[in-house]
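dude i think i finally got it to work??
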Amino acid sequence: MLDAIITWSLRHRLVVVAAWLTISVAGVIAYARLPIDAFPDTTPVQVQVNTVAPALSPLEIERQITARVEQGISGLPDLVEVRSLSRFGMSQVTVVFEDGTDIYKARQVVSERIRTVELPAGVDPPTLGPVATGLGEVFHYLVTGDGVSAADLRTTQDWVIKPQLASVSGVAEVNSWGGEERQLQVVVDPVELQARGLTLADLADALGRNNLNVGGGTIDVAGEASLVQGIALLTDKKQVEQVVITARNGVPVRVSDVARVVDGHEIRRGAVTADGTGEVVLGLGFMLMGENSHDVTRRLEARLTEVRKSLPEGIDVTPVYERTTLVDQVLATVRTNLLEGAILVIAVLFIFLGSVRAGLIVAAAIPLSMLFAFDLMVRAGVTGSLMSLGAIDFGLIVDSSVISVENTVRRLSEDRTDRSKLDIVGDAALEVRRPTMFGELIILIVYLPILFLEGMEGKLF
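look at this
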């Protein structure tokens, strides 16, 4: 069969050249589409279930929330393991599925199960974490401002910067660290509350009923319909103080009669400082699973430049970590190693073969092999990284080519007959094709076990 293939290729040289040109074009297109990252992503298929329960201790979080969520999601198809973390005010359950499970199917079955979980009164329903992986954290930035309070920095991050970055294509989530989440807090005077015969439930109910906008239908007059709206959304301290709790003998009892309304913030569980200049706010951008980290980071950087124009006076935002920096360094390392390796191989070929033409023919195997590999990597879903690109051995790539071309050059130089060069080249190729094939099969067998690695090892290698 090998003899037939070689003979046919020599007779149809233009077809072979055209076929490799087609493969080269496909390889160039595949390289442009090839996902590039610094390292392989070994994160398993997992879904995070987050539940927030303010003021509950870790022990109560475990008893009342985490245990119930774990029981609710047990028995899911393709489930591998369930891990959980219970801390003050928060429960996080990580559900790990078998490799190859569709992430969106996994999220769907988890979402359906957690709807059936009964949690204590007053606890918001569980939510799913973003569709991201352990390497999804691709962009960090700092929100700073001279003389600007931590509350104003956090407010700018949550209401100005975060929404704009979250709309970037390929972004799964934008998180905020540090600063103070502003709140209007009602500090109750228990003596005044008791003197008026009220309870904390009465106060909380009054605030809830008066802190919303409602629709009242329409009023039709002379053929025109006017919308009726009840506007009662509380936006500042004075409005909160004027909320009526109840009435005694026709006299309204307001919030200001039994409590003080003060500017406060959410319970803090950490802070962020930078460069010894005081407290700042840190923003973290996560990319969606399967996205190209290089492209997503570039889009986030471009959008952040636009966001600066809409920031309040005195507040600035500065990138402090971009995945593109790491990716570019890795690509530069790979590019340098591949280029230096290719130059050394070509130089050695020129020296030992003694022919520039023969050296170029052998060296052509390097780019053609890589272009063919790029197309296969895209089809197989393999990411271009330091592991997949940095381990290329040019010696193995040109091994058979060197033997075949060297034998052809020798046979051409020794021939003293009138035979055509095409016949001589064919005989030379047929003479060494079988032993070179065995050498290639031996190399293939050596690497074959890597193809059967599973789990984290399979993703890494």
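The chain has a mean pLDDT of 85.
im so relieved honestly
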